[in-house]
Sequence to fold (317 residues):
Amino acid sequence: MNKDMFQIARSWMALVVTALAMTACEYKELVDGQEPDNRVPVEISFDWQNVDSIPTRMQVMFYRDNESGYQRCDVGNGTSTIYITPGEYNITAWNNDGSHVYFNDYSRQENINATTPVFNPQNGLGIQNLLDSLYPGQKILDYPDYMVHGNMLGVKVNYNSPQKIVMIPDSMVVTVDVNIGGIAGLEMVRQVKGAIDNVAGRRYMAYENRVTDPSTVIFAARSNAADSTVTAHFWIFGLEPEELEGSKHKATLFFWTTGGNVFIEIDISDLIRKIGKDADILSIDIPDLDIDLKDYIHNGWDLNIDDWDNVVKPIGF
Fold:
């Protein structure tokens, strides 16, 4: 075999290995002891018309009514062939290509849920005590990746061939856009983060919009001294967890500067009530906050000490 033919053969082998990896399946009691030969091929694909960003990988779960067990398959974002025992199934699918979302309780379709890790402040940030005092009793979590999900009920798989399943996933997160202007003194800022409290820390995959677990979500933000703005773009699982419907919400910005620390609290309760708890987009847009950070910071701040000055701004939405 010459060098060119060897390279071609190796490329084809890599493609085969990749395709097999992208359609790996796990069987959990669902096959009822039947041999693999009793499974039939099913072609599964996705219509991405309802999502903002197409994921790279999807996880597809097959359940039967009133039976234990499941079949879980990892597939790509195109068309994949899986093998499954004939029967009638309820299907839930979501993207599993995120970097900091994890999933819990596959035992039954209605139990599957997603959450994010607890926020872990970096050494020297001097913020943990402040967070504990601002949000007593709440989990303080990182924000999730962009997530999509889809559900189908009563899908029949039989021995007829070929069989095709087309799922149409939707976004399962709320997009949050922050654009706040009128903040002077940003040239002194080393880092800026934000938080939104009393939002959902957990999302159930098999429901249209079931969110629970009241939490505070921490997000990364960017400051621009040239135009005195702070911006952020991130996601949360939901605006109001079912345990706290109608609660108050505030957005908080935390500034680490060369002269000290400032956090700014903004009440966004009226804004969330106005757009509705099931909204897909939360836009916190304040053109002119009219604050100069230099009015609130002091020189000689020690990064190892929790020492913050607080600014509360009444904002109308």
About this structure: Confidence is low (pLDDT under 50) at residues 8-21, 31-35, 299-306.
